[in-house]
Structures are given as structure tokens and as C-alpha cells.
Amino acid sequence: MRKKSKYNVAVVGVGAVGIEMLRVLKQRNFPIGDLKVLARSSRDITVDGVNYHVDAITPEAFEGIDIALFAGTEGEKGAAVTFAADAVKRGAVVIDNGADFRMSADVPLVVPEVNPKDVKKAKRGIIANPNCSTIQMVVALAPVHKLYKIKRVIVSTYQAASGAGSKAVDELFSQTKAAIDKEATIKSEALPQRIAFNVFPHIGSFAEDDYTSEEWKMVKETQKIMRDKKIKVTATTVRVPVKTGHSEAVYIETRKPLDINEVKRVLAQSPGIKVVDDVKNSVYPLPIGAEGKDDVFVGRIRKDPDNKKGMWLWVVADNLRKGAATNAVQIAELLVKR
User: Fold this and answer.
1) Contact 56, 41 (CB under 8 A)
2) Handedness of CA 178, 286, 164, 251 (dihedral sign)
3) Which residues participate in catalysis according to the annotation?
4) DSSP string, 281-317
């Protein structure tokens, strides 16, 4: 992709992530020449008072496009499977938020704060956006890994309904109302279990060793992004009745003894991270505080009293922004700065 003052951009998909991509592009003043919004069918939409015409997606729609942002759908085959090759053939670089290309050896998996140079490895013309829960975790892990080399990660996630799409958010609201109204039957359609006033450890499909696909993503994507298969990761991913914002309890064991004060200092100085850690005043990261923001918020930073190489982090981020749309736009920003 040659250097320009402005770039023609396509956003594919107008679900929760696609809408957020349009919002983030505008808020970050991305140098857009022409903007195309593509989806399965033609329509008009409004985002923050701005009207967008949506065209039905075809291979020809990518003519003249420099960067194609595919919103993707977690757990399903995304539009990139059908149309990425057509976009690349017409000269576009594809940034895909779906899961289809993440573990392909010839497709870089990029978190700009962690492995920005990997954008140069997009030999197929495709760059993959990692899973939302992986993105926020590796942003927090990377500074610790540089200091002490991480040996093992044990993570439990508390993931918002919006991670399963706008229908899951609607279901959270409708089920909550039904439960308050004491309705006899509360239906679950978008999610595998009732989400109102409930939590359940089931995100994605159950796979190898009875781990879910979401849990395996956190294992394999972390190792790929951080270029270290020696880092052992085990995860339990949980859906919670929160609209937006994923939270994670992350236990880290390093190869060298930890200085917790040095960890706090380095995290506070790291790009993309905001340390929120004043436990004496009950101040720590919350999903309602992360919603609409692009940072990864880290708190409850504390050592394991029984392991000089062990520590805990509490990590929170907006899953639609840093966990999806913002990370994709940041990748696009890396491309145009090259």
C-alpha cells in the first residue's frame, strides 16, 4: 500500500462492532478519502447523528479501496472468508475482526501496543484482529513479560453480553425486565443460558479437553501475539449480566522473582494502559468506567504472598472498542504510518 494523504476505507458489517468502527474512525480522525459501508443488504443507518448509506456487499464493491475493515462475528464464519480475497485482489489490505484467519501462519495477529512490527508480515494482504478477551489481557501482560518473562497465566474472564452481539444485549435487557416483572417464562435465544441475574461459564462452543473455543483462543492467540509458546495459559471464560466491558482476573507466574512496585510503575508508564489501583478508597477498574474508552484499565495489582514469582491483576476494557473496533483502527493507523 503506497503512502497517501488520505485512504479509501471500507467497513464491512453494521452490527455492534461495525457501528463502533465507524464511530472510532471518526473520533480518531483517520485520514479517510472515500468511505464505503458494506453489509448483506442495502440500507441507510445513523451513527451519532451522522448518516451512512450501506451498500450490499459484492466483490466489485472493493474497487479502489485501500483498507477494508471487516467487523466479523465471533463464533461464526465471517464475511472475510467470502470476500477478503476479492478485496486483496483489488489492492486492499484486509483487517479482519473475525476468528477465521487468526491462527493462519501467514496472517499476522496484531495488538499495536504489543507487536506492532508484525503488520509487515501481511504477505496475504490480511491482518487479523485478536479475540476481545485476548487483546486486553496481552496489553497488560506484555510489560510484565519484558521485565520478568512470564511462565504461566491463569485467567478467569467476566465477559459482557455485547461480546455476543447486539441481540444478546437486547436479551439481557428483556430478560431483566421479565425477571423484575416476575414473568413465569424467561426465554434464552441469543445466549445458551439465561443472562439476567445470572452468570455461566460458556462462551463459544465446547472443544478439546472440554475447554470452550473462547478459552482456547486465549491460549493460542496469547502465545502467537507474544511470540512465545513457552507461556502456559489456562482460562475459564464466563458470561456476566453486564452490557459492555469485559473484566479479567489474571494470575501471572514469572521466571524471575517479582518486584510488585516495579510492576506498578512499569504498567503505569506503558502505552494503552491506565492503572486504577487505590484499594483503600475502593478504587479499581470497573466495566461501567471502561465503556466508551480505548484504554485497558489495570488494578488490584498485588503479589502472591506464597510465591515470590506470582502476582494478580484485574484487567478491564471496553470489548467493542479496544477489544475490537479500536484495535482494528489502530492497526490501520500503523499501516498508514509505515
Assistant:
1) yes
2) negative
3) 132, 246
4) GTB---HHHHTT--SEEEEEEEEETTEEEEEEEEEEE
How far is 315 from 243, CA to CA, in rounded Å?
17
Q: How far apart are CA 138 and CA 92, in angstroms?
A: 28
The sign one gets for the Cα dihedral 103, 104, 105, 108 is negative
The residue type found at 317 is: A
- Could you list the beta-strand ranges (E) of 104-240: 126-128, 150-159, 232-239
List all residues 6 or more positions away from 13 whose beta carbon is below 8 Å from its beta carbon. 38, 39, 70, 71, 72, 73, 78, 79
Does 122 share its domain with 77?
Answer: yes
- 245-269 pLDDT per residue, tens: 999 999 999 999 999 999 999 999 9
Chain-centre distance of CA 67, in angstroms?
Answer: 19
| Residue 43 belongs to a domain | yes
**Spatial separation of the C-alpha atoms in residues 193 and 172, rounded to whole Å:** 11
Whether 1 maps to a domain, the answer reads no
CB 295 within 8 A of CB 322: yes
The residue with cell 472475510 is 80
Q: Is this structure's pTM higher than 0.85?
A: yes
Domain extent at residue 175: 134-318
Can you tell me the mean pLDDT for 132-159?
A: 98
- Do 138 and 179 lie in a common domain? yes
Neighbours of 186 (CB within 10 A): 18
Contacts 24+ apart (CB under 8 A), 219-222: 220/103, 221/102, 221/103, 221/109, 221/130, 221/131, 221/134, 221/138, 222/134, 222/137, 222/138, 222/141, 222/153
Chain-centroid distance, C-alpha 6 = 26
Q: Are the CB atoms for 200 and 193 separated by under 8 Å?
A: yes
